[in-house]
């Protein structure tokens, strides 16, 4: 078995966490009898400063033949505005390949400690990734005058809302049979009432799944006060964005938060990336936490159909965090990125 | 000195927490040498079911002559849809009196315990209360068909953004001199880039205040991971709504979270209310936590210019929570609403 994987290390600590993952991925592949054909793309803010583009004009076409994309981090605001870097690389990939389901698991790895007293939670957030509040529609008039008005329009389509909910219900069915749908229908009476209605319709096809509806403010509070009461959480682009950073926080920080941008139609590549950004403040020092990227790589192996290898990688990662000897500075330790990755590789079976 | 105060107990536990506050407020007034002329309005879901209106047609005019409004809770979704109850009472008051600054302090009262390991934080959230994501603009087409599209438009005006930021900067100046401005300008390039620009302009008038800019996802995570790094936080209607529920969560739950809807122009009444809702599940049992309402009443006294009485009320409240003997069931105790209120009244000085 061979799988074509595109690597986009990106900016800042991105290349460090991607490089660290490579030996782990290669060892997992050889232990489990498959090959990863990895192609590296230097698309980044550096490339933008040198060429005027984050990626080549045919970048999306270059990625298309791959089964998956593993991405480090994109952006370096002090050098290139986010409006250029994110809109020139990360967001076009998510949209071009219609990676509509952004999946982020939130639980504490063994040995990890979070900011909450509660430690027993296991949440899977599923964020709509292609429309809604981040549609990019809007405008401004009377710019720079006292009369200025800015509008930003959220656009929700039935296709978009229905498919993310169906995706969520499928996940819920495989897990606990419980799904939380997130809206703010008492204050946003068009988009969110629509979301509620579609939820009700889709729910009719999944009588085995119990649905709870929460307002975004209430579920944000719940993630902190009673995270153990949540399982699969489905939310719009903005609400999911917020809840997954909150999820990252309660699982011990961005260093521990993986993510998968999925298009279930396998003719298009899905993308796997840590939730953290490029962290310019620690870039180049070899001390970035590789856990989020290694966990993302495990999600990628699952998606490629290499579930045994994915399980083995997650088990090795958990063994290293459980032992607690190797911790990067963000976790109060003094280990280096490569120390952690090597220890994970050593524990693969 | 006399102050006209409108009481709107509202629904569910609303009347219970308002009634409990009355004896405390009356004692505070008599100790500090002023009078509160309190008028009670029975506007509520009950009234809606009996008359078809949450408040009379001239309700806003009836409220106008008061210096302040103390509100319990509005809404009882099982009996009246939120779209009727909230849009028929709570939201029209906020909008008619242009109560554009929704202020919510988030800190642990002495003796209170929250879900975080961190306990040393003192945040003042200031939420824009009249426009933005809750403007109510939008629509749906092809309703109920596979082609349906729903849009919801956020509208931000320079006047609206500028005044809430100025309000925030004034508060920051009185506190630590630090202000956090919340946006999501990397994904919402009209409304939030506008907000960033206005922040920069207003900041120029406050060279003594240090401004940090956060994206909503990042600051939500920060409120959980490092709340002690935040002081005054200024956010849009939606972002403030989310952050203040999160703030309520970290301060020990909604039972502890007060709020003030302020129009600094004192010719219009401001409104004070606990952040919690009507809690139909425990309504009528006399066990609602009155702390959030008592704290809101203290904010009201401050606003009325009775700062000494406000301080005394907050001190009495803190003494009761610090002692920890009287706790309502939401805090793991067995006390009744009136027990807690009476203890606070007893400690007033
Ligand atoms: C960088 C930003 C555009 C991105 C997003 O909002 O999707 C990030 O916050 C994330 O959560 O992946
Ligand atoms: C009930 C609802 C309309 C209200 C709001 O969003 O303003 C509430 O969530 C609040 O925070 O006061």
Automatic annotation (TrEMBL), chains A, B:
Requisite cofactors: Mn(2+); K(+); Mg(2+)
UniProt pathway annotation: Carbohydrate acid metabolism; tartrate degradation; 2-hydroxy-3-oxosuccinate from L-tartrate: step 1/1; Carbohydrate acid metabolism; tartrate degradation; D-glycerate from L-tartrate: step 1/1; Carbohydrate acid metabolism; tartrate degradation; 2-hydroxy-3-oxosuccinate from meso-tartrate: step 1/1
Positions of the Isopropylmalate dehydrogenase-like domain: 4-344
Keyword annotations from UniProtKB, A to Z: Manganese, Metal-binding, NAD, Oxidoreductase
Catalyzed chemical reaction(s): (2R,3R)-tartrate + NAD(+) = 2-hydroxy-3-oxosuccinate + NADH + H(+); (2R,3R)-tartrate + H(+) = (R)-glycerate + CO2; (2R,3S)-tartrate + NAD(+) = 2-hydroxy-3-oxosuccinate + NADH + H(+); tartrate + NAD(+) = 2-hydroxy-3-oxosuccinate + NADH + H(+)
EC number: 1.1.1.83, 1.1.1.93, 4.1.1.73
Region of interest (Disordered), ranges: 325-349
Stored InterPro entries: ICDH/IPMDH, IsoCit/isopropylmalate_DH_CS, IsoPropMal-DH-like_dom, TTC_DH
Record has Metal-binding as a keyword: yes
Family membership: Belongs to the isocitrate and isopropylmalate dehydrogenases family.
Protein purpose: Has multiple catalytic activities. Apart from catalyzing the oxidation of (+)-tartrate to oxaloglycolate, also converts meso-tartrate to D-glycerate and catalyzes the oxidative decarboxylation of D-malate to pyruvate.
Protein's UniProt name: D-malate dehydrogenase [decarboxylating]
Biological source species: Cereibacter johrii
């Amino acid at each position: 078995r061979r799988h074509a994987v595109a690597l986009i290390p990106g900016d800042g600590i991105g290349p460090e966490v991607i490089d660290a993952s490579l030996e782990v991925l290669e060892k997992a592949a050889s232990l489990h009898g498959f090959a990863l054909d990895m192609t590296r793309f230097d698309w980044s803010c550096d490339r933008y400063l040198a060429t005027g583009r984050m990626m080549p004009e045919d970048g999306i076409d270059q990625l298309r033949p791959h089964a998956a994309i593993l991405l480090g981090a994109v952006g370096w605001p002090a050098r290139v505005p986010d409006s250029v870097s994110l809109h020139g690389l990360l967001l076009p990939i998510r949209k071009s390949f219609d990676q509509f389901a952004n999946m982020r698991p939130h639980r504490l790895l063994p040995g990890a400690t979070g900011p909450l007293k509660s430690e027993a939670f296991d949440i899977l957030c599923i964020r709509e990734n292609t429309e809604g509040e981040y549609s990019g529609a809007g405008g401004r008039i009377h710019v720079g005058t006292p009369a200025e008005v800015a509008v930003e329009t959220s656009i929700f389509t039935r296709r978009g809302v229905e498919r993310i909910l169906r995706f969520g219900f499928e996940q819920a069915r495989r897990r606990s049979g419980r799904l939380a749908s997130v809206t703010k229908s008492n204050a946003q009476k068009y988009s969110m009432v629509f979301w509620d209605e579609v939820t009700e319709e889709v729910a009719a096809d999944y009588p085995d799944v119990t649905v709870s509806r929460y307002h975004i403010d209430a579920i944000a509070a719940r993630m902190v006060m009673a995270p153990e009461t949540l399982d699969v959480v489905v939310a719009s682009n903005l609400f999911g964005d917020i809840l997954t950073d909150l999820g990252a926080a309660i699982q011990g920080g961005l260093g521990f938060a993986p993510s998968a941008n999925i298009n279930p139609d396998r003719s298009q590549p899905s993308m796997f990336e840590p939730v953290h950004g490029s962290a310019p403040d620690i870039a180049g020092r070899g001390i970035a936490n590789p856990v989020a990227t290694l966990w993302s790589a495990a999600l990628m192996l699952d998606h490629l159909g290499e579930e045994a290898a994915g399980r083995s990688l997650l088990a090795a990662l958990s063994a290293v965090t459980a032992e607690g000897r190797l911790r990067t500075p963000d976790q109060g330790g003094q280990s280096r990125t490569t120390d952690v990755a090597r220890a994970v590789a050593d524990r693969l079976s």
